[in-house]
C-alpha cells in the first residue's frame, strides 16, 4: 500500500511539472520554430562559433542590440549546476565575535593623515589644512579609541597621534578594562560633549608654520651667463652687492639701489671670466679667468690692485680667508696667496686632486679648507700642512657643492654630480661620515641658513629644482622650480633671508627661503658675546 501511494504521488508531480523527456522535446520544438534544424550550421554559428563569441566581446550587450537572439541555445540556462554544502556544527559552541574594532576602520583616516604629513614636508603652503586634519584625526582617536593626545609639540608627536592604538582582539580577558571616555569624571557644569583630553588638545597653542613662496620676488636678465658646471660666477657681498660674471665682463648689482655697474672687461686680453668671489669685508672682489689669472679689484675705486699668476689653466673656484686668497684650477692645483704681499710671501701649493678643482670653501673659524674636484674626491686641509687631513671618496661624481655649517662645529656638507645625486654630511673633527640623502638629481650648490639649522641645495640634471632641507632630520621643507636649465649658481644675501640662483637660461632669480629672525634660545644665551654691548 505504501508502494502504490509513492507511485501515485510521483505521477501527480509529473503531471504538474512535466517529465524530463517532455521538457527536452519542448525545448527542441522551440529551437526548430526559431529557425533551423537541430543539426543545422546556423544554430551552431549563433551559439558556439568563434566569430559569434568575438562579436559578443566587442559589441554592446544583447538588450541594446537591434536583433537580440531568440534561440534558447544562445541564452544562459535557467539553473546553474551547484552543489549545496551543509554547514557542520560541532558539539561545542565557540563564540566568533570580533567586536567593534574601530582602529581597523579608523585606518583609512590614519593613512590619509600620513599622506598629508608627507605632503606637508614637501609643501609648506598647505600647513594650515594639514594641521586641521591632524587635530581632527586626534579628536577622533580621543573620543572613539580612548587615546590621550593633548598637545602637538613636533613632527614626532604628530606621527604618534596618527598611529593606531593597540587593542587586544581577544574576546576574554583576565583583567579589568580601561574605563570608557564617556565615564570620565568631568565638571558637572561643563556643557561640552568632548572629553577633557580633547579640550586640552583644542586649547594647545599651534606652532606657526613658515610659508615659503614658490615664486621668486625678483628676476634679472643675465645674458651670456655660461652653462658650465665647473664655474662659480655669482657671489653676494656683505655690503649687499651682487657680482656676476657674464662672458668677459663682471657686473655689480646693488640690492639697495638696483643700480648696475660694469666692474671690468677682459675683452682686450681675449679672456673670459670663470669665477668671482667677495672678500669678507665686501670691499674687494677676486676674478678668476680662463687663462689662469686671478685679478683683485677694489670696488669703491673701481681699480685693479693685483694680478696673481701661477695657474696654467682656468680658475674655476675662489675662497677668501682674511687677506689670504685660495684658488682652484683645472691644472689640479690649489694656490694660497696673501694679496697684501704677493711678490714677497711665498705661495702655498696644495696638490692632491687628480682632476679639475671645482669647489673651495673655508670653515667659519677659518681653520680648515674644503676642496672638491672632478675626481669625485673631497679633501679637508688645515693651515699648517701641505697634505689633506681628511680625504673622503664616497661620492661617485664630481664634488662642486660644499658648505660648512655655521651652527655645528666641524660639520661639512657636500653634494655629488649626475652619477651620484647625494648630499653627504661629514664630521671633520673625527673624520667620520654621517648621514646622507639621495636627491634624485645633480647637486650643483649647497648653502646653510645663518639663523636656523636648514640648508638649501640647487640641482641640475634632470629636475632643475631648488630644495630646502631641515637638518638633522633631512626633511624636505620646500621645493622651488622656475629655471629651465641647470641651477648652477647660488649665493646667500648678507641678512641670511634670501638667496639668488643663476642658470643657463640666462636669468637670476631671487627667493625668500630662510627665516630672518634668530631663535630666542640663541639670543638669550650668556655665551653669545655679540648680543649686547659691554
Question: What labels would you give this structure?
Answer:
single chain; 534 residues; alpha+beta; Methylamine Dehydrogenase, Chain H; four-stranded antiparallel beta sheet; elongated; Fizzy-related protein homolog; WD40_repeat_CS; Cdc20/Fizzy; cell division; cell cycle
What does this structure look like?
The protein is of the alpha+beta class and 534 residues long. The protein is built from ten helices and 28 strands. The protein has helices at 2-17, 20-34, 41-47, 50-58, 102-105, 107-122, 127-145, 155-162, 196-203, 520-523, and strands spanning 218-221, 234-236, 241-246, 249-254, 260-265, 273-278, 284-289, 294-298, 303-308, 315-321, 324-329, 333-338, 348-351, 357-362, 368-373, 378-382, 390-392, 399-404, 411-416, 422-427, 432-438, 443-448, 454-459, 466-470, 475-480, 487-492, 498-503, 507-512. The strands form seven sheets. A four-stranded antiparallel β-sheet has the order 1-28-27-26, with no helix packed on it. The protein has a four-stranded antiparallel β-sheet with strand order 2-3-4-5, with no helix packed on it. Strand 10 and strand 11 form a beta hairpin. Helix 7 (127-145) runs antiparallel to helix 9 (196-203). Residues 15-20, 34-80, 96-100, 102-126, 154-167, 171-183 and 519-534 have low confidence and may be disordered.
Amino acid at each position: 500500500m505504501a508502494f502504490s501511494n509513492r507511485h501515485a504521488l510521483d505521477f501527480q508531480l509529473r503531471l504538474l511539472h512535466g517529465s524530463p523527456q517532455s521538457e527536452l522535446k519542448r525545448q527542441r520544438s522551440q529551437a526548430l520554430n526559431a529557425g533551423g534544424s537541430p543539426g543545422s550550421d546556423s544554430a551552431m554559428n549563433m551559439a558556439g562559433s568563434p566569430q559569434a563569441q568575438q562579436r559578443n566581446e566587442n559589441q554592446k550587450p544583447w538588450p541594446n542590440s537591434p536583433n537580440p537572439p531568440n534561440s534558447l541555445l544562445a541564452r544562459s540556462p535557467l539553473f546553474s549546476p551547484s552543489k549545496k554544502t551543509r554547514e557542520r556544527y560541532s558539539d561545542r559552541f565557540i563564540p566568533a565575535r570580533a567586536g567593534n574594532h574601530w582602529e581597523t576602520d579608523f585606518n583609512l583616516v590614519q593613512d590619509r593623515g600620513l599622506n598629508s604629513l608627507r605632503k606637508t614636508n614637501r609643501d609648506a603652503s598647505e600647513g594650515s589644512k594639514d594641521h586641521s586634519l591632524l587635530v581632527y584625526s586626534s579628536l577622533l582617536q580621543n573620543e572613539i579609541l580612548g587615546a590621550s593626545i593633548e598637545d602637538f609639540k613636533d613632527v614626532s608627536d604628530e606621527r604618534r597621534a596618527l598611529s593606531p592604538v593597540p587593542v587586544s582582539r581577544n574576546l576574554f580577558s583576565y583583567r579589568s578594562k580601561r574605563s570608557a571616555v564617556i565615564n570620565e569624571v568631568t565638571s558637572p557644569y561643563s556643557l561640552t560633549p568632548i572629553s577633557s583630553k580633547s579640550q586640552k588638545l583644542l586649547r594647545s597653542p599651534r606652532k606657526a608654520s613658515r610659508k615659503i613662496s614658490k615664486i621668486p620676488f625678483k628676476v634679472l636678465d643675465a645674458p651670456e651667463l655660461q652653462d658650465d658646471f665647473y664655474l662659480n660666477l655669482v657671489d653676494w657681498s656683505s655690503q649687499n652687492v651682487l657680482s656676476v660674471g657674464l662672458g668677459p665682463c663682471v657686473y655689480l648689482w646693488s640690492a639697495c639701489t638696483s643700480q648696475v655697474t660694469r666692474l671690468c672687461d677682459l675683452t682686450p686680453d681675449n679672456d673670459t671670466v670663470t669665477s668671482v668671489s667677495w672678500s669678507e669685508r665686501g670691499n674687494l672682489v677676486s676674478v678668476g679667468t680662463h687663462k689662469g689669472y686671478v685679478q683683485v679689484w677694489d670696488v669703491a675705486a673701481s681699480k685693479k690692485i693685483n694680478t696673481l699668476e701661477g695657474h696654467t689653466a682656468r680658475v674655476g673656484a675662489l675662497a677668501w680667508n682674511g687677506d689670504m686668497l685660495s684658488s682652484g684650477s683645472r691644472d689640479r692645483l690649489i694656490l694660497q696667496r696673501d694679496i697684501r704681499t704677493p711678490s714677497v710671501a711665498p705661495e702655498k701649493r696644495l696638490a692632491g686632486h687628480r682632476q679639475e678643482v671645482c669647489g673651495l670653501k673655508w670653515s667659519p673659524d677659518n681653520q680648515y679648507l674644503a676642496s672638491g674636484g672632478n675626481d669625485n674626491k673631497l679633501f679637508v686641509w688645515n693651515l699648517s700642512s701641505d697634505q689633506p687631513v681628511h680625504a673622503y671618496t664616497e661620492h661617485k661624481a664630481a664634488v662642486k657643492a660644499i658648505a660648512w655649517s655655521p651652527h655645528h662645529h666641524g660639520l661639512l656638507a657636500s653634494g655629488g654630480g649626475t652619477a651620484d645625486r647625494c648630499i653627504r654630511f661629514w664630521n671633520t673633527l673625527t673624520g667620520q661620515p654621517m648621514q646622507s640623502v639621495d636627491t634624485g638629481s645633480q647637486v650643483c650648490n649647497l648653502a646653510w641658513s645663518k639663523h636656523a639649522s636648514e640648508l638649501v641645495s640647487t640641482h641640475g640634471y634632470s629636475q632643475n629644482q631648488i630644495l630646502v632641507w631641515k637638518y638633522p632630520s633631512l626633511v624636505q621643507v620646500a621645493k622651488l622650480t622656475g629655471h629651465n636649465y641647470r641651477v648652477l649658481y647660488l649665493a646667500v644675501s648678507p641678512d641670511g633671508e634670501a638667496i639668488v640662483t643663476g642658470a643657463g637660461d640666462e636669468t637670476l632669480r631671487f627667493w625668500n627661503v630662510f627665516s630672518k629672525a634668530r631663535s630666542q634660545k640663541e639670543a638669550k644665551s650668556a655665551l653669545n658675546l655679540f648680543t649686547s654691548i659691554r
